[in-house]
Amino acid sequence: MKELIIATKNVGKVKEFQELFHKYDIQVRSLHDLEEPIGDIEETGRTFEENALIKAEAISNQLNTPVLADDSGLEIDALDGRPGIYSARYAGEEKNDQKNLEKVLAELEGVAPENRSARFVCSIAIIQPGQKSLVKRGTCEGSIGLKPKGENGFGYDPIFIPDGYDRSMAELKPEEKNTISHRRNAILKVEDWLKELE
């Protein structure tokens, strides 16, 4: 089985990648699975793409192996694209999904449902030693609900309602989410590379 290092320590994200890559016969390993610990990499980019590349390059250089990094988040039109690249720490330096949700809902208080359009964005960067880097973006369009619903998923899933659904992302079964997610849509764009991975 082929193996790919995913540059994340986010357990929810790793699980999604494992399920998405299963059909390519690729075994996903996260930063938690490495014998040598990798320190936090400062994401100094101004876009999802720049941050994904920074992570992938830094870790690929350390390990001399193919690395996939993603940077993903939520863009809300009524908030001028916020939280954007600051999605994970929107409510403060300490990552806290619940506080992030509460901050978004507070900022959208009084905004009518038809004006709560948003999208999940995922930019994937793949670095292979000695080869050209690959960067692709996937999105999932939707809107922000009035209150959190559902127990599945992570992050902003409980308040994000995908277009065409009347349920939040957190109310969908994992296999259902994985047919429409921003991560899946980004992965589809690197499918040719995945098939060639040796």
UniProtKB/TrEMBL annotation:
Cofactor(s) listed: Mg(2+)
UniProt entry keywords in alphabetical sequence: Hydrolase, Magnesium, Metal-binding, Nucleotide metabolism, Nucleotide-binding
Domain of life of the source: Bacteria
GO biological process, alphabetically ordered: nucleotide metabolic process; purine nucleoside triphosphate catabolic process
Active-site annotation: 71
One GO MF term attached to the UniProt entry: dITP diphosphatase activity
Function comment: Pyrophosphatase that catalyzes the hydrolysis of nucleoside triphosphates to their monophosphate derivatives, with a high preference for the non-canonical purine nucleotides XTP (xanthosine triphosphate), dITP (deoxyinosine triphosphate) and ITP. Seems to function as a house-cleaning enzyme that removes non-canonical purine nucleotides from the nucleotide pool, thus preventing their incorporation into DNA/RNA and avoiding chromosomal lesions.
Cofactor stoichiometry and binding remark: Binds 1 Mg(2+) ion per subunit.
TM regions (residue ranges): none
Organism of this sequence: Thalassobacillus cyri
Oligomer and partners: Homodimer.
InterPro entries (alphabetical): dITP/XTP_pyrophosphatase, ITPase-like_fam, RdgB/HAM1
The keyword Nucleotide-binding is annotated on this UniProt entry: yes
Biological classification of the source: Bacteria, Bacillati, Bacillota, Bacilli, Bacillales
Pfam families registered for this protein in UniProt: Ham1p_like
Protein name from the UniProt record: dITP/XTP pyrophosphatase
